[in-house]
């Protein structure tokens, strides 16, 4: 038998505190159980998308400002 410690991914480290608070409770939407992972991952992607869009907008604005 091999025993080893696995390093948690950044995603697991980010979600674990929230998961600990929700243990023993179930949130349901339209009868379907909602897990912390199913909510947090799309939210993180949305925030990341906003950050990328803001960065692209800043680059475009600076390029337009240099042309004048």
Walk me through the structure.
The chain has 68 residues and is mainly α. It contains two helices and two strands, in the order αββα. It has helices spanning 10-22, 36-67, and strands at residues 27-29, 32-34. Strands 1-2 form a two-stranded antiparallel sheet. A hairpin with a 2-residue loop joins strand 1 (27-29) and strand 2. It is flat and about 60 Å long. The mean pLDDT is 76.
**What is the approximate shape?**
flat
Structural class of the secondary elements?
Answer: mainly alpha
**Strand residue percentage:** 5-15%
Main sheet record: 2 strands, antiparallel
Calculate Rg over CA atoms: 20 Å
Could you give the order of the helices and strands? HEEH
Present the secondary structure layout.
Layout: H1 10-22, E1 27-29, E2 32-34, H2 36-67
Antiparallel strand pairs: 1-2
List its salient traits.
68 residues, mainly alpha, two-stranded antiparallel sheet, 2 helices, 2 strands
């Amino acid at each position: 038998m091999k025993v080893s410690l696995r390093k948690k991914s950044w995603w697991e480290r980010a979600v674990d505190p929230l998961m600990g608070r929700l243990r023993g409770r179930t949130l349901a939407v339209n009868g379907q159980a909602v897990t912390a992972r199913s909510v947090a991952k799309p939210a993180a992607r949305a925030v990341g998308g906003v950050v990328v869009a803001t960065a692209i907008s800043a680059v475009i604005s600076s390029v337009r400002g240099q042309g004048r």
